[in-house]
Design a protein that fits this description.
This protein is mainly α and about 500 residues long. Helix content is about 70%, strand content about 5%. It is flat.
């Protein structure tokens, strides 16, 4: 019975579900037909609207096209009109050109006739010239080529003589005026710049009171002297020289450190390796301070301001350096004063000249880049420490190792030459001195017609004696300038060398 109730309920539920499905389908079908009908109506409206818009657009495009066609037709008519005008103009120009062509043909025919006449006359002229040349050759007894060569040779000799005479006149005039002005400047400079000669060696003598101190300096088995040499880099020579010890080194700063350290050790009395290292370090520090003080005092004495502190140290180190035996600091001060004097005489800036003169040799005391020449190294240091371009160029060009770009450079070069070449300023090794004299004499004797050449006045003058039969007066003047040029190109020498060519003719007869 229970199962019957369940089945009846299920059947009722199925029937209700079927009725719901059928009713929903009928409802949805009615809605769909309504939506389709509404959509068809909207589509018809849109279609009519689009057709209307298309008609309006067509009418507008048709109107624009008609306007464009009318505009192009007007442009075509205008172009045709201009082309007709150009055609008429070209026709007129063509007619004018044809007329000018006919005229040029007539002119060309006329020119041809004139050229033929000129050719006939030229042929007649050449014949007359040839006839005249043959007559002259028969009269002179030589051909035209030979006469031309002889005339050219005579003209060359005459021109050479006149040119040499003109050169001599110009040189004499320039030498007279230049010598007067140069003598005035140099004499004023020498009068206003006086300095002593300082000659330094590679050896410093340290005097002691007794030989007992020598033993204490040497120490047990030489340990003190070895420690001193290692600390200072100086060779200490203890020999039989009484009351003296030799300090040998090429670096004057090291020799000065060794001398001051030895002095303090001897005065103190305590001499042993540890004390030596302590004293040497202390002396080196004191010497660095002294070098800085010397540089500052030098700049103050010369009235030079604003130099970088590192350049001031290099100036101070110059005191302990020498060049050919000439104290470098004294040389720099001397060049500074000479350059300032010359600049004043020439109307230039004396302060800039003095500054460049003081710094021109700083490359000699620098330990940087030893492969560079000292002038270029000095220029590099000056540029590094912000010196002006004219100062740097004067430093770098005072030995002509770079191009001179300012008027200050030749002044520094001349001042350096005056300071280094004056008598007694520098010490010269005897072998190089003799070699220089022999080289001067050999250059003088290398020219034809030279009988003998003598180098005199410590190599400042070369006297050349020539044969009177082989060398004329004009050739002697040229020979002196040629020898001077060759010496200038091939040799290095301080100052200047005077070349004197002597030509003498003697006629001797005896009355009996």
């Amino acid at each position: 019975m229970f199962i019957y109730y369940i089945l009846s309920a299920l059947a009722g539920a199925v029937l209700a579900l079927a009725i719901y499905v059928v009713a929903r389908r009928i409802f949805l079908k009615g809605r769909r037909d309504e939506i389709i009908e509404k959509a068809e109506l909207e589509a018809e409206n849109i279609k009519k609207e689009k057709i209307l818009q298309a008609k309006e657009k067509f009418i507008q495009l048709k109107s624009d096209h008609e306007k464009f066609v009318n505009q192009k037709n007007a442009e075509i008519k205008d172009t045709e009109s201009r082309l007709k005008q150009k055609e008429n103009t070209l026709n007129q120009q063509n007619a004018e050109l044809q007329k000018k062509h006919r005229e040029s043909d007539a002119i060309r025919d006329n020119l041809k006739a004139q050229v033929e006449i000129a050719n006939r006359k030229a042929a007649e002229y050449d014949g007359l010239i040839a006839q005249a040349t043959r007559q002259i050759e028969s009269i002179a007894g030589m051909t035209a080529t030979e006469a031309k060569a002889q005339l050219m040779e005579n003209m060359k000799a005459e021109a050479r003589t006149e040119a040499q005479s003109y050169i001599n006149d110009v040189m004499d005039d320039a030498r007279l005026n230049a010598a007067k002005e140069a003598k005035r400047i140099v004499i004023n400079t020498i009068q206003r710049t006086a300095s002593e000669t300082a000659i330094e060696n590679a050896v410093t003598v340290f005097n002691i009171e007794s030989d007992e101190i020598k033993g204490r300096i040497i120490g047990r088995e030489g340990r003190n002297i070895r420690a001193l040499e290692a600390a200072t880099g100086v060779e200490i020579v203890v020999d039989d020289t009484p009351d003296a010890i030799l300090l040998s080194a090429f670096d004057p700063v090291r020799r000065e450190v060794a001398r001051l350290a030895l002095h303090q050790l001897v005065v103190d009395g305590r001499i042993h390796p540890a004390r030596i290292e302590e004293v040497v370090a202390k002396v080196q520090k004191q010497l660095e301070e002294e070098i800085l003080e010397i540089g500052k005092r030098t700049c103050i004495d010369l009235g030079i301001h604003g130099i970088h502190i590192e350049l001031i140290k290099l100036v101070g180190r110059m005191k302990y350096r020498s060049s050919y035996g000439q104290n470098l600091l004294q040389h720099a001060r001397e060049v500074a004063n000479i350059a300032a004097t010359m600049a004043s005489e020439l109307g230039l800036n004396p302060k800039a000249a003095k500054r460049a003169g003081l710094l021109h040799d700083i490359g000699k005391v620098s330990d940087e880049d030893p492969e560079l020449p000292h002038a270029l190294l000095g220029m590099k240091l000056a540029e590094q420490y912000k010196e002006k371009a004219d100062i740097c160029n004067a430093i770098g060009a005072h030995h002509e190792e770079t191009e001179m770009t300012t008027i200050l450079a030749p002044i520094i070069q001349v001042a350096d030459a005056i300071s280094g070449a004056r008598p007694g300023a520098r010490r010269e090794v005897i072998e190089s001195y003799i070699k220089r004299l022999k080289d001067l004499e050999n250059i003088g004797q290398s020219y034809p017609g030279v009988v003998k050449a003598y180098a005199i006045q410590a190599g400042r003058e070369l006297r050349v004696i020539v044969g009177a039969e082989q060398v004329s007066d004009a050739q002697a003047e040229k020979l002196s300038s040629d020898i001077a040029q060759k010496i200038q190109n091939e040799m290095t020498y301080p100052g200047q060398v005077k070349i004197t060519v002597i030509r003498e003719t003697r006629s001797v007869a005896f009355a009996k």
